[in-house]
Amino acid sequence: xxxxxxxxxxxxVGGALLIMVLAGAVFAPLLSPYDPVAIAxxxxxxxxxxxxxxxxxxYGRDTLARLLHGGRLSLTVGALxxxxxxxxxxxxxxxxxxxxxxxxxxxxxxxxxxxxxPAILLAIGLLAFLGGGFWNVVLAIAIIYTAPMARVARAxxxxxxxxxxxxxxxxLGAGDARVLRRHVLxxxxxxxxxxSTLRLALAILAEAALSFLGLGTQPPxxxxxxxxxxxxxVMTFTAWPAIGPGLAITITVLAFNLLGDxxxxxxxxxxxxx
Amino acid sequence: MVxxxxxxxxxxxxxxxxxxxxxxxQISPRRVEELRRLFGIDRPLHVQFGEYMTGLAxxxxxRSLRTGQPVGRELSRRFPVTxxxxxxxxxxxxxxxxxxGVVAALHRGRAADVLATGFVLLGLSVPSFWLxxxxxxxxxxxLGWLPPTGYVSPAESLSANLAHMVLPALSLGLIxxxxxxxxxxxxxxxxxxxxxxxxxxAKGVAERGVVLHHALRNALIPVVTVIGLQFGTLLGGTxxxxxxxxxxxxxxxxLEGINLRDYPVVQGAVLAIALAFTLVNLAVxxxxxxLDPRIRYx
Lengths: 274, 298
Fold this sequence. Notes:
The structure holds 2 protein chains of 2 kinds.
Chain A: H1 2-7, H2 9-26, H3 28-31, H4 63-99, H5 101-116, H6 119-130, H7 134-161, H8 164-171, H9 176-212, H10 224-233, H11 240-267
Helix pairs in contact in A: 2-4, 2-11, 4-5, 4-7, 4-9, 4-11, 5-7, 6-7, 7-9, 8-9, 9-10, 9-11, 10-11
Chain B: H1 2-11, H2 16-24, H3 29-39, H4 45-57, H5 71-106, H6 111-125, H7 128-142, H8 158-192, H9 195-202, H10 207-244, H11 250-260, H12 263-291
Helix pairs in contact in B: 1-12, 5-6, 5-8, 5-10, 5-12, 6-8, 7-8, 7-10, 8-10, 9-10, 10-11, 10-12, 11-12
């Protein structure tokens, strides 16, 4: 599978972009010497220059430094929220598909209700309840993605649930836990991996939208969405503060989308990868 | 659904009274209790819910706790704005998505297809609110062709109304156009492999006729399904787009309601959005019958 993924041109581009974004986030202090939250009124709204490659914002903070540090926050929120949604939705969905019956019916009805709301509206409502802040954003995004994740896991388990090897394992006396762990899950994992990668892209977009609305991680910690919101207030003077973070979001989301498509093609033996 | 919205917003710590105090400064605890009683939010939840449902059955959505205005009247004033935005967005999506998808499928693997795929990938990765800001920067601030924000009712001036709605509709529609392009392309490619397409070509139907009358019509069913599903995303997107362009629609009303814990406003707005979503799904189901006469509803 790794070989097929590596031969997939989209996945290669996505992987390269993702490495670039990750490197920018990890090595942020080395790539830009400025403090992302230090205010310097004397150099506010400066255009791009050698000292400040992306210019400065309304408070004189270096846009590149904020962009790189903001990447840490966006990527962490994305990874944690999708991880949580995967753990909660994935396990509930898998059990729901495996057990069926009233548990399955209950899980499906609850997910119907959750899916009837536009996701972003649900997240906004949850944040009004929880208040802003890093962990609450993680939780809100995890909650809105739990239902779709559960659906995908359930469908994946249902697809292998009645295969003969599963019945054979049960007939040989293996318990539910063993059948699930050894026989069902390893064969149902592919769609869930694809869904998780594509959900990472959506989670980064959701985090940006929430912090754009002022509901995410609170200032002065930089997030991409919040930087765009700040850039919007000064866009009659200069476009730079809003352009950088938007590009950063687009590149990161593009990377996860390309990678997700690549993993799906690599896992599907019917697709020609070249 | 109604119960879920009802409970969710009441789970939020703080209520409209605490929010108003936040706006107006200090106030005695006795006055707080009086205000809660005035707003009717001091009673048990099941009583409040029963009352709300009775009102709902009579078409009464209650009054805004903050302004005292009937929510139903406010919603009916705002509903057309959101629906106009959503439909114009959908129009943009179809006007771009269908032709680009068809061209991409017809030129599979060639330059046009690569360009279309690039457009799809980019469209699915750009945040709509950033696209909105870029469009404002370019068309309103730099070129001065269109107004940056605001709303004019079509009854007042249709041309001014359209001018104000173009940028919001583009911000929503371009992203949906990417999703539509993708599904039109893949759905057409699948149909192109069918026997009836070969038959049509073999009997000498011009390529244009093959695409328009034979392939596209059959390829449209999955397209309609996906677009119907995407409409929900579109309605969610209106919350942010209405905020950016200062449009007095339902999404912005819901956001204001959530921030002020104005229960009847949030309940009404979310119900209206869910209702719109359900109506679109119904419309999608009815479209199937038109597109494929074999599908009949009894």
